[in-house]
Design goal:
about 850 residues; alpha+beta
Length: about 850
């Protein structure tokens, strides 16, 4: 499990359960309330919030299938997860298709009998939005349950899951705020339980996506898609809400227009009613009605009343007594009036009631008649014939300046006025003129002035969504590039042979590489936060810490500091380090950093010191050889001349005793010059490997012959010796000759010299032990100095004190060590340790 997911697990008892498993269980539990509501007939369980769609029984199969696929994937059963994901796809597609076609599902007939009161939905189906959400989820699950989901499959699954989470979250918040009401988006409304289940499973799917990036801190690959889809959906919902508000304002304006027409129409209709009632009252009081009075009064009344075309005076049998029309009315109109009058059975009423009726067919489809009670003629009626078009048109013309208006009776258009109707929302309102039912249609042209806010919000919102998605994608790409660069830098930083530390402005260690950890004998991470001058390698030396802190202060001031220090704390040998402090100033952030670098100069210093000593010894050796050569030539002449003179001196000569002394001194001088010459003998061998066993055997055999006159036994043990060591053969032999010869010379009569060679770990150890008097502690540190010797110069093998000095410098030059110890039973033991691996001096070979 990736480290980045350590916080995404929940502790239950002694087991760690992944977050995705909890989310799958939550989705399963969300099925229970709705199902219980349908079974028990509890309305508030089925429809807990009015702004959400009620729970559908179709979710009983869809949600468990989706949650089961996730649980199977978590259990490692990819085949079962894939089968459930396919089932989820099939159920989603089928239910979406059935809902879009309006076809009931098989579940409808099974559960309609248990439908709670107040819930009127297709219970077996699911909302389109829920079907889309689970279709996205199932498609992502299919991609992840493949045999080997690759990078592209994971990326596509992340995009699908991001879209699912974004859509579910936006729909949930929009419905919670009631933003979908009266917006035309009501079909997308989902149930509360379905949206929460889709949201939980979408998050679980995102959590299961494999993390390909190293480090675990990179923004998820699906984050740009999630943010882009979420912001785009939010923008679309807001845009639709603003459009719906704009359409509501259009409907309100159209309603106001329709109300204005209706108010004017009703006033005119009531005016006509009053006119006819006045005529009826006038006629009821007259004994006789002459033609002049009829035509003079009532005809002018018709001409002055808008929409009133004729006035008829009829008796109870429907016979026309008088008419304001000079022309004969169409017979179909008269027949319709007569039929209606007879059917109403005219009778005198107080107060006088007014009646209206529709005449069909005829040019005047509406008739308004008022009974005329009279004591002289019985009950008659005044009938007014109304032209509905002429009655409505004046009021329509007043409001049809910027809109298109149509007046119709059922599907028959009476007239239309205003600008040509184009695509736009249409508002319809009823118009009632007595018994005549009309309808008015009002349409605002699309080019009519309206608020640009919805379009502005849509354009700016989608632009911001695109910019936000692009920004997150670029941010993630830049982060990955920086992460790769930091990884490359970290690799170089950690694999450097020299000590490297990154310090802040206060001298605290921010980063330390592996070499720094090795120098401090602790993991590099433990050096973080430690002041540089209190690092473990300073061994708590207050004076050193103060000097290092003072150098760091100079480095913070912009000066490059370099100093050399010898470290001895907790080490068998001192380590020489060359430290440098280089300031780093970031002009953009103003941050101050210091790079501390430390180079181990121990090997180089040791090699330089060895080379200087060897050079000095070589120079002295050359000088000794030169002196020996210059002495040896005249000495040979002296010796030859003395040999000639020695035979001529009789034994009785008073000074004959000096002959032997002169001969001995000449031999001693010859031995000294020979030893001086042997001190400097150039090594012509170029071999870099030598046999330990052969070198020890040759040295022991040779020195036994050289010292055959001494009663000293040389014991050799090479049973555990390595076969080869990576040192020159001459160096090995010179070391053995000097050490063994010295041991023989200091050993007592019948003593034993032990020569042992063994391999211990990565070293070849040579030990030469004697039974002599030992090395006094007072001179133990001086025995490796050039020309220091404790031998008797009068003896034949008395040395000049150069042998041990050459041995020490030769051993150190190849990375070895030489030490002298006292033996428990008396005597001295010299121990030489030679490395089994060639000394790496850093030179290019």
């Amino acid at each position: 499990m990736h480290a980045s997911r350590s916080t995404e697990w929940l502790l239950t008892g002694s087991r760690l359960v992944p977050l995705s498993r909890w989310l799958a269980y939550t989705a399963l539990l969300l099925v229970v309330p709705g199902l219980l509501g349908w079974i028990l007939g509890v309305h508030w369980l089925v429809h807990p919030l009015s702004t959400f769609a009620p729970a559908r029984v179709g979710g009983v199969a869809l949600i468990p299938a989706a949650a089961g696929a996730m649980l199977a994937l978590l259990a490692g059963r990819r085949k079962i997860a894939r089968v459930l994901a396919v089932l989820c796809v099939v159920l989603s597609v089928i239910t979406i298709a059935l809902v879009m076609r309006g076809v009931p599902t098989p579940l409808d007939g099974l559960v309609l009998q248990r439908q709670p009161d107040g819930v009127d939905v297709a219970v077996g189906s699911i909302p389109i939005s829920i079907g889309i959400l689970f279709l996205l989820y199932a498609a992502g699950m299919l991609l992840l349950t493949g045999a080997r989901p690759g990078e592209q499959a994971a990326l596509l699954a992340g995009a699908l899951a991001s879209s699912q989470v974004a859509l579910a979250g936006v729909l949930f918040l929009a419905q919670l705020a009631g933003l979908l009401i009266d917006t035309g988006l009501e079909p997308l409304a989902g149930s509360l339980y379905g949206l929460l289940a889709a949201l939980a499973l979408g998050v679980a799917l995102l959590e299961r996506l494999p993390q390909r990036e190293s480090g675990g801190h990179a923004p998820p690959r699906w984050l740009p898609a999630l943010v882009g889809v979420s912001s785009a959906l939010v923008v679309l919902v807001l845009w639709q809400v603003l459009v719906a508000r704009e359409q509501a304002q259009v409907r309100d304006r159209s309603a106001i227009t329709a109300q204005a027409v209706d108010r004017g129409l009703q006033r005119q209709y009531r005016s006509i009613e009053r006119t006819l009632a006045s005529a009826a009252a006038y006629l009821g009081e007259l004994r006789t009605v002459d033609d002049a009075m009829w035509h003079a009064g009532l005809r002018r009344m018709v001409e002055g009343t808008e929409g009133l075309r004729h006035i008829l005076w009829v008796d109870s049998a429907g016979t026309v007594l008088r008419s304001t029309s000079a022309d004969t009315l169409p017979s179909r109109v008269l027949d319709a009036v007569r039929t209606h009058v007879r059917s109403q059975q005219l009778r005198g009423e107080t107060p006088v009631r007014r009646y209206s009726t529709t005449l069909s067919p005829g040019p005047w489809p509406l008739a308004l008649w008022v009974p005329v009670p009279s004591a002289f003629r019985g009950t008659t009626a005044v009938v007014g014939l109304l032209d509905d078009v002429a009655l409505v048109r004046p009021f329509v013309n007043e409001v049809a300046r910027d809109v298109w208006v149509r007046v119709r009776a059922a599907d028959t258009t009476l007239f239309e006025v205003g600008r040509t109707a184009t695509a736009g929302p249409r508002f319809t309102a009823p118009l009632q003129i007595g018994a005549r039912a009309l309808a008015i249609d009002i349409v605002e042209p699309v080019d009519a002035p309206h608020s640009p806010l919805p379009e502005v919000v849509l354009a700016l919102g989608l632009t911001v969504s695109m910019l936000l998605t692009t920004t997150l994608w670029l941010h993630r790409r830049i982060w990955l590039q920086r992460f790769e660069e930091s990884q490359r830098f970290r690799t170089v930083f950690d694999t450097a042979f020299q000590v490297q530390l990154l310090l802040d402005a206060n001298g605290m260690v921010l980063e330390a590489n592996r070499a720094a950890g090795e120098l401090a004998a602790m993991p590099p991470a433990q050096l973080a936060g430690v002041p540089f001058w209190h690092a473990p390698w300073w061994d708590g030396d207050a004076d050193t810490a103060e000097r290092v802190q003072e150098r760091f202060g100079r480095a913070c001031g912009g000066e490059i500091q370099r100093f050399e220090v010898e470290l001895t704390a907790g080490r068998e040998r001192a380590v020489t380090m060359d430290f440098s402090l280089k300031p780093l100033n970031d002009s953009n952030t103003g941050a101050h950093r210091v790079i501390a670098e430390g180079r181990d100069l121990t090997i180089r210093k040791r090699a330089e010191e060895s080379l200087r000593e060897i050079s000095a010894l070589t120079t002295m050796g050359r000088l000794a050889a030169r002196v020996a050569h210059e002495i040896n030539n005249p000495l040979a002449g002296i010796q030859n001349a003395f040999l000639l003179l020695r035979g001529s001196i009789p034994e009785t000569h008073p000074h004959y005793r000096f002959v032997g002394a002169i001969e001995r001194e000449i031999a001693r001088i010859a031995a000294v010059t020979r030893q001086l010459y042997e001190t400097y003998r150039p090594d012509q061998s170029t071999a870099t490997q030598s046999s330990v066993i052969l070198a020890v055997s040759d040295a022991v055999s040779f020195l036994e012959q050289v010292n055959r006159g001494r009663p000293v036994h040389i014991k050799m043990d090479v049973s555990q010796a390595p076969s080869l060591v990576p040192v020159p053969d001459a160096l090995l032999r010179q070391t053995l000759y000097n050490l063994v010869q010295n041991a023989v010379e200091v050993s007592p009569a019948h003593g034993t010299v032990t020569v042992c060679a063994v391999q211990e770990g990565e070293s070849c150890v040579l030990r030469v032990a004697d039974e002599g008097p030992g090395v006094p502690p007072a001179i133990r540190d001086r025995i490796f100095d050039p020309f220091f010797s404790t031998k008797d110069r009068t003896v034949k093998t008395g040395g000049m004190g150069i042998g041990l000095a050459l041995v020490r410098q030769s051993v150190l030059a190849v990375g070895g060590t030489i030490a002298v110890h006292d033996r428990a039973g008396g005597g001295t033991e010299f121990e030489v340790r030679l490395p089994m691996t060639p000394l790496d001096t850093g030179a290019l070979r």
